[in-house]
Amino acid sequence: MADVEEQGRTQSEEFTDESEEEDSEEEPKLKYERLSNGVTEILQKDAASCMTVHDKFLALGTHFGKVFLLDIQGNVTQKFEISSVKINQISLDESGEHVGICSEDGKVQVIGLYTREGFHENFDCPIKVVALHPQFSRSNYKQFVTGGNKLLLYERNWLNRWKTSVLHEGEGSITNIQWRANLIAWSNNVGVKIYDIGTKQRITNVLRDNISLRPDMYPCSLCWKDNCTLIVGWGTSIKICVVKERNPTEMRDLPSRYVEIVSAFETEFFISGLAPLADQLVTLYFVKENSDQMDEEFRARPRLDIIQPLPESCEEISSDALTVRNFQDNECRDYRLEHSDGESLFYMISPKDIVVAKERDQDDHIDWLLEKKKYEEALMAAEISFKNIKRHDVQKIGMAYINHLVEKGDYDSAARKCQKVLGKNMELWENEVYRFKTIGQLKAISQYLPRGDLRLRPAIYEMILHEFLKTDYEGFATLIREWPGELYNNMAIVQTVTDHLRRDPTNRTLLTTLAELYTYDQRYDRALEIYLRLRHKDVYQLIHKHNLFSSIEDKIVLLMDFDKEKAVDMLLDNEDKISTDRVVEELADRPELLHVYLHKLFKRDHHKGQKYHGRQIVLYAEYDRPNLLPFLRDSTHCPLEKALEVCQQRNFVEETVFLLSRMGNCRRALQMIMEELEDVDKAIEFAKEQDDAELWEDLISYSIDKPPFITGLLNNIGTHVDPILLIYRIKEGMEIPNLRDSLVKILQDYNLQILLREGCKKILVADSLSLLQKMHRTQMRGVRLDEENICESCHAAILPSDMAKPFSVVVFHCRHMFHKECLPSSGLLPGVQFCNICSAKKRGPGSGILEMNK
Fold it and tell me: Whole-angstrom Cα distance, residue 318 to residue 561?
């Protein structure tokens, strides 16, 4: 609820009823100012009785019969002494060039503000209302109406004389008239009528709802929303009437227009005035003194509400109680509400006060948000509407928000907002940094400081780093990693960190940070020493990034101890910078590390490091036996005698077997498999690989007195050795495990072989026959001879130039052609000839397919 204090229009203030404001967080829709300047002086001596609003000026009537023309600020521009009694109504045409005035003593005047023309008339009864035609200045007829006991229409005829017509009478005093376009609406004791000046027809009669209320105490309020919509407020009732065109087929004797009431509802208080606001209504209420709904202190204050009309009710959007001067002495008839069509301005007129209400703009919205300490919303609203706000500055609102967050103790949010609010203003940034230092919150603002193209003085960043170094090593390290080194004096920070390390020499965080500072300062050797000492994961990245391979030649063991895989990969990827010989030399005293290096080298390329293959045999045998046999298989440079010696010394049977077989001693290898491994499957597999009949004989001889071996042989040698040879040599009466199953398997394998052979034979015969038929068809085809063909022996044209002479030609299936006399006789088979060319190329002799004689 807003109270309007006694202030000037230029220095306005909005304030609300404390009892309601504490409970309500809803922003008001309107703001209020008291119309002051000349109005203040007028109302000190006189009292306002009526007022009319034009886009350019205001016209104020008083109880002492004076009319004042005012500018929008309330300054008096013109004064008219009309009467000695109350001015009842003032009317202006749309152009603002003529004003109509009526008073309680029956005087009616129409005055041209810029011309001398006018109208003066005295009646013997009070004239309550007057209304000029909206186009009075431009119309030739100069029409206007007055209302007392009758509704009179005045118009000037072609003789320049005024003609009077009675439009209505007999229903009591007329209290209100509103003229819009061709429609005149007026109210009397019975209700509201609308008259069409164009058709000269009265088109409706809207009856008064509450006839118990005195019309002079609770007058009717009329307001045109547009050319067809009339808003009627009377007592506690509001009706919205729409003038519509009647269907020509329904007219008969009825007016061409009719009125439809689209909304009708009751309100809580008595209506003193109405005005449209888009699709809503602004209503001025009089609160009756005996109302039980208001506190005693505020019982008679008028209210200005914004409501949303519904067909049978309304929804309250906002409600403000106005503290106007002498409101305790006023009645419902003492208040009026006028509005400006050009902009949303609403004037509340009371005898001793005039209050102006207008829609709140974006500046007012921001004011309210700031008052409610909704700084974030205020900042957002200012950023969105920065082109439209006039009284506020986005940065100042942002600073107020930061101050509010600091007062709340939300230092992190305050620091985060600095990025957005302070922007590129380095002076403000430095001020904020010093303020955060004063309150002991440098850590909060540190992560939001500018660090790009725009930056603060180095002393600011160094101050924050020193602060972290005193209390938070981890935070200090984070800033060093995140901040570019150009922000501060690197050497000064290095010296400070070194001083702290003297007191705590094993602090990993400080050592890591010092290494990063050395790296930025391009003292990579010192950084590398620290990283290796700490076994830091970034040591390899540092070496690669800054090409420090020359610095690590004597530190290979340290690198390998830290992370073998990464170290070896790095060394192998950069063999051109650190040779294999150099690495082997450095790792000579650490054979386990040397093995890891040489093993990966061998995996990458079997031929690199071939001179170390002999050494690798011992290394594999000592540290990685599972990879020894694959190494022996893949290496072509391995000394076999040394490898055999190492394997025999360590009794590596599988490796020894492989080496013996590779050296050609397969019988000894097979013997080791059977005697030491006693693995018949492996022995059979070995024999299969070698595919040597003598090995099979040795295997059978060794296995003949060992039933498990015989079973294994019976199950596996069927496709390599004739099983009968083994079966004949089995001693009679020897018990052999699973003999029956083994024999069945041999027979099944034999049957499978027979079936496969028969199937292959059928396929071969069918394919042979098909190909033979295809060849026969091909060779039976005729061969075309023409002048371009030549004899393969004499290279002359195969056909004679004179076809009438006899000639003889031989054409072979290989398509080689000869004159018969050029073809040498064959002595191999009488009567059979062969192509000499194909026979010479060993492509198989061709036989003559065609002998052509003529």
Answer: 78
| C-alpha distance from residue 473 to each of 354, 462, 467, 502, 512 (Å) | 68, 15, 10, 15, 11
- What is the predicted pLDDT for the residue at 7? 39
What are 188-208's pLDDT values in tens digits? 989 999 999 988 889 888 988
Do you know the residue count of the chain? 854
Nearest Cα neighbor of 103 from 118, 94, 114, 91 is 91
| Nearest alpha carbon to residue 748 among 729, 723, 712, 711 | 723
808, 854 in Cβ contact below 8 A? yes
Tens digit of each residue's pLDDT (9 = 90 or more) over 92-105? 999 999 999 999 99
Beta bridge partners of 231: 223, 240
Q: How far apart are CA 331 and CA 350, in angstroms?
A: 10
Contact criterion met (CB below 8 Å) for 709 and 673: no
pLDDT at 15: 36
pLDDT at 841 over 80: no
How high is the pLDDT of residue 2? 42
Judged by DSSP in three states, 31 sits in: strand
Distances in Å between the Cα of 465 and the Cα atoms of 3, 8, 340, 754 are 55, 55, 63, 90
φ, ψ of residue 266 in degrees (nearest 5):
-100, 150
Which one-letter amino acid corresponds to residue 154? Y
Is 97 in contact with 133 (CB distance < 8 Å)?
no
C-alpha dihedral (655, 661, 662, 665), degrees to nearest 10: 120
The three-point CA angle 838-841-847 to 5° equals 20
pLDDT tens digits, residue range 788-827?
A: 889 988 988 888 888 888 888 888 888 888 888 888 765 5
Contact 136, 114 (CB under 8 A): no
Amino acid 575 reads E
All residues at 6 or more sequence positions from 737 whose CB lies less than 8 Å from its CB, including other chains = 707, 708, 711
Angle at which helices 458-471 and 473-482 pack, to 10 degrees?
A: 150
Q: Exposure string (b/e) for 457-490, b if CB count within 10 Å is 16 or more?
A: eeebbbbbbebbbeeebebbbbbbeebeeebbeb
As to burial, measured by CB atoms within 10 angstroms (0-12 exposed, 13-18 middle, 19+ buried), residue 69 is buried
What are residue 192's phi and psi, to 5 degrees? Answer: -115, 135
Residue 21 pLDDT exceeds 70: no
- Token digits for 637? 């440079």
396: pLDDT strictly greater than 90: no
Rg (CA), the chain: 59
232-256 tens-digit pLDDT: 999 999 999 999 998 887 777 788 8
Residue 19, pLDDT above cutoff 60: no
Instruction: Using the predicted structure, report yes or no on whether residue 116 has a pLDDT greater than 80.
Output: no
Kindly state the DSSP code that residue 455 receives in the 8-state scheme.
B
The strand pairing partners of 192, in sequence order, are 187, 206
CB distance 638 to 663 below 8 Å: no
Identify the residue whose tokens are 């830290």. 562
Q: Is the alpha carbon torsion for 414, 419, 421, 426 positive or negative?
A: positive
For the chain, the straight-line distance linking the first and the last C-alpha, in angstroms and rounded, comes to 134
Residue 82 and residue 123 in contact, taking contact as beta carbons nearer than 8 Å: no
pLDDT digits (tens, 9 = 90+) for 747-769: 777 788 888 888 999 999 999 99
DSSP code for 296: S
